[in-house]
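As practice, study what follows.
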Amino acid sequence: MRPTAPDYVGRFAPTPSGPLHFGSLVAALASYLDAKSAQGQWLLRIEDIDPPREQAGASDLILSTLDAFELHWDGEVFYQSQQTERYQAAVDALLSAQKAYYCQCSRKQLQTHPVYPNWCRDRHDLSAHNNAVRLKTDGDFTLVDRIQGECHWAMAALGDFIIQRRDGLFAYQLAVVLDDAEQGVNQVVRGYDILDSTPRQLQLIEQLNEVKLIHTPAPDYAHIPVIIGTDGQKLSKQNLAPAISPPERLKLLQKALLALGLPLSQAQQEASYSELLHWAVANWNIQRIKAVAEITEASLQRPFSRC
């Protein structure tokens, strides 16, 4: 059963590679409603650890957009770019415990290998210079996702994965696990497109607990369907999805609630934005969300029920 306040700690963690789009809004709203309906905390983390992908001014724009949509976070904004010493300490600890190793393999060498073939796993002649760091993986992981149900992964089918790139930048998988532990996050509501990252994060949680870098179990997970645009592609910054606009916030909220299993009656249709958001918190039920990978944006054009 989901914890309630003060035990519930959720978060929204956008990457500042562009403005928030409708898919971002659905993800932010789902995590916000789940936290606030449990009287829990909703934290905001800016995942700014990949400068080549970031867009100037995007972080501030994300904050101002969330504020304009009345999705107010608890506490201070957490920036990954300020956490690099913790990340490096974790990499060093995993290397020292022989749970990770240096890897010199290039993308070109691995392009015909969907699973890393462990070429560098038992090498002891490599150093940090111009090499990546991979985590050793083993075993199986099973979890019961709050939306998608039981999920099972064999790590042998996924292989050892990179936790620090050869250019020194830290991988998303490492940073998100360390930061969820640092912030006390125990409930993660995010898009279905990140579901395949979960076993890697579970492996890291296990390994980091073993080396005593963290002292926490895995959070509960809920993966919502991603939104597919009219062009058949997932709405994303990479696919240049249009930015959401505060003047259209009521229409966007209505459409987002439909994607999250909350069709609106005539009374909700006539509500103001603030009234509708308050109603959504009071009527939130994550079990209403469809256990599917994606929802087309075109199916969200009729947000009102006849009741």
Notes: The mean pLDDT is 92. The longest strand covers residues 41-46. The longest helix spans residues 22-37. The CA atoms of residues 49 and 82 lie 9 Å apart.
